[in-house]
From TrEMBL:
Record-linked InterPro entries: Aliph_Amidase/BUP (IPR050345), C-N_Hydrolase (IPR003010), C-N_Hydrolase_sf (IPR036526)
Descriptive protein name: Hydrolase
Matching PROSITE patterns: CN_HYDROLASE (PS50263)
One example of a Gene Ontology biological process annotation: putrescine biosynthetic process from arginine
Length: 274
């Protein structure tokens, strides 16, 4: 599978400009014969929306969503936006479109509400993690902090996920040695998740500045063997292309049978209080 990592700099609150940006990157990815293109979290809206969340919210029949879904006839697309549910609540979502149809919509479950983050104040939380079938195999989406909780990666693993997409809006904060603390955390987490779950993993983080906060980029991809296959520059709007092999999943599960040997009944007994 040939994957395009679209490390973009969205325009805050300007969905029209962001749609055009998506179209430009999708066109480039199609020209490069990519199978799938992955955009960051909230790629159609920008991140620090605050009280503008309801103004930019869309339903799946919105003209812009239908436009991107239509473009998926040539390439599978992972993209993010603010979704207004039938309950008139607003969700941070990432969608997977393929062959001209909307295949999956993931509502972010873990909404950070500490330090600089206020997501839980403006968004309703999703209630589940799930996998979905695609032309490139069984996939799952975890939006940013979703991927930093053991419950999410465990559930996807038990559902037989093969490829995990992680759209992110990680700001540059903290310093460790000569690098960013946030980058160190994500690089460690991504390698761990790919290696222990024996899955291919694609992490796409945005760049740009909003409300004085810079987003560091550094998007990357790992094979199921735990090998980093691509890493994009920090603080630079760009795109990268990586080849990920389904055969690596098979090889990883032969050499490191963590997936096979997991004893889910122990966790179930604990949760039941037995």
């Amino acid at each position: 599978m040939r994957v395009c990592l679209a490390q973009i700099k969205p325009f805050l609150g300007d969905t029209a400009k962001n749609l055009k940006l998506h179209e430009e990157y999708i066109e480039k990815a199609v020209a490069e014969k990519c199978d799938v293109i992955v955009f960051p979290e909230l790629s159609l809206t920008g991140y620090y929306l605050l009280d503008y969340v309801s103004d930019v919210a869309m339903k799946t029949d919105d003209r812009m969503i239908k436009k991107i879904v239509a473009l998926s006839k040539d390439i599978s697309i992972v993209f993010g936006f603010v979704f207004e549910g039938e309950d008139n609540l607003f969700y941070n979502v990432s969608a997977y479109a393929e062959k001209g149809r909307l295949v999956h919509l993931h509502k972010k479950v873990y909404l950070p509400d500490y330090t600089m983050f206020e997501e839980a104040r403006y968004f309703a939380a999703g209630k589940e993690f799930s996998v979905f079938e695609t032309a490139i195999g069984r996939c799952g989406i975890l939006i940013c902090e979703d991927a930093l909780h053991t419950s999410s990666i465990y559930i996807l693993s038990r559902m037989g996920v093969q490829t995990v997409f992680i759209p992110s809006n990680s700001p540059a904060r903290g310093v460790v040695g000569d690098g960013l603390e946030a980058a160190s955390i994500w690089q460690t987490s991504n390698k761990y998740t790919a290696s222990l779950l024996t899955v291919n993993l694609v992490y796409v983080n945005r760049v740009g500045v909003e409300d004085g906060v810079a987003f560091w980029g550094g998007s990357e991809a790992y094979s199921a063997l735990g090998s980093r296959k691509a890493r994009l520059p920090q603080f630079e709007e760009t795109m990268g292309i990586v080849e990920l092999e389904q055969e690596d999943i098979r090889l990883a599960r032969i050499h490191s049978p963590f997936y096979r040997d997991e004893k889910s009944h122990i966790l179930l007994d604990y949760l039941k209080g037995d």
